[in-house]
Amino acid sequence: MSRLDELAVIERLTRSLSLGRSGLWSVGDDGALLAAQDRLVVTDAMVEGRHFDLRWSSWSDVGFKLLARNVSDIFAMGGRPTAMLLTLALPCNLAAAALDAFAKGLETAAARWGNPVLIGGDTTSVDGPAVLTLTLFGKRGSRLLARSGGRAGDRLWVDGPLGLAAAGLALLASGESHRSEVAVAAHRRPSPKPLLPGAMRAAHACIDISDGLLLDASRLASASGCGLVVTEVLPGREQLQPLARDREELAAWQLTGGDDYVRLVSASASPGRGWSPVGRLTADEGCFIEREDGTLYAAAPSGYLHHFGQP
Amino acid sequence: MSRLDELAVIERLTRSLSLGRSGLWSVGDDGALLAAQDRLVVTDAMVEGRHFDLRWSSWSDVGFKLLARNVSDIFAMGGRPTAMLLTLALPCNLAAAALDAFAKGLETAAARWGNPVLIGGDTTSVDGPAVLTLTLFGKRGSRLLARSGGRAGDRLWVDGPLGLAAAGLALLASGESHRSEVAVAAHRRPSPKPLLPGAMRAAHACIDISDGLLLDASRLASASGCGLVVTEVLPGREQLQPLARDREELAAWQLTGGDDYVRLVSASASPGRGWSPVGRLTADEGCFIEREDGTLYAAAPSGYLHHFGQP
After folding, report:
1. pTM of the full structure
2. Which of 1.10.287.130, 3.30.1330.10, 2.10.70.10, 3.30.230.10 is the CATH number of B7-139?
3. Closest partner residue to A6 among B31, B85, B306, by Cβ?
4. Helix H or strand E segment including A97
């Protein structure tokens, strides 16, 4: 294990990642000049012990997921990733090999999603859990999607299964990861998908589901001035049923699990192949779940939120 | 002390800070659309126990300094602040009053430096020291300054005293803060200055001094392909002399102290009133300090760097 200073950290990171294309930025510089196209911006932090656990994710998984989470947000706006800033608060005893693995995972993710270039950031040490922040820039697609464009009567659609990552985390935590490679992979290396032209045309509003379907769908409904009905039968259910202890666990994974990184679109017609209906926006306020028999019951729009303050 | 979730944290922050002007971003949104002018970007993190110590800085000071540090970088590029992203990893037991004080300090700094608007960010909890990251956008000035434009023969100039903040921190740590209000204030609430038109015209290269004169001047010299001579007599010396134990402490504060947040400009003529000469760029490699009698001695370009890895 060698001892690194922050310049060596930056050198190791930039060895595998593309350097900034801006003539202004160079390794160690504090500022960058954005390209005229880099108009979309999202940012997302991952905290050791909160968003990742090194008992069941490698540093390479963490690097991959840090970019994937941000890519998911850019995709939900209808954009494509172009450039990134990376701010790392790292424990003093972090091994060089861990850093190399982190960079490798980030590089693998970057290669998958259009090779956004690293244009700057900040590196510091911390006497505590690692805090990794990525700020991702993107160029606009043919439209700019927001969560506020939904209309009463719209149906809601998602572009992937719900609850898979939550199930994967539960399996890892209980030592049963062998029961579903797919669920474990969904937790470790989420794979957000860009909106294809058909979905871009159909969508009235879009949001990335990262804190659970109920909470994020409520955010879209609320921003659109609508109420919400979510169906009980959701994509991924058949895959997850054999993994869940009971109906309650299955519902918790699918409705409030978090870490899905699928897109939720509000549209009057289907956004295209690969999209599954999960509910609808209503003119009346409130958040309801629709049983298979068509009856409704009220639900709290809960999901993953961080809490602060002395209880 | 009330218990807050992350939405309440965002609500408290945005109560005092201007909301994003972008129609796309609203409280809780993950993404923003940058204005066409927001082309400059800098980012800087502050870690509890590394960059600030709550024994001698208030949460309000910390909020102020977080923005000031980033403003200093934007000013060094010749720009003006316009918009910001704020990513906070906060201890679970953080009191609401601490958060309000932090927001108040940030707001005070924002009011001083052109009211950059908050356009987004991320809030999370951490089982450890707080990690506060600010990403600041800016619009370009009449020129875009980089650290790489210096020429052999240029003189080096700074727009403020050197070592004042380091002296302030030393006084706070030794319980002697009463000995210099100015030094203590320089540590708690740095006050970076924008480049005026005369300095913008004169400057061949510019860098923000945050890690100490020697290290940052070496970065400018190195990026410009030059060597470096720094004078032993530096601005702020007379103020600091009575506070320092000896010549070594004085030199350490002024040459390697860090946290100065003054701009270092490389130019053939003076950048204007308020600028003090501190050395020159040379065609020969190396880093030297020039004694009052004109003799030179070699110096390591040292300053504050974070270190990682098992020793």
Report:
1. 0.91
2. 3.30.1330.10
3. B306
4. helix A96-112
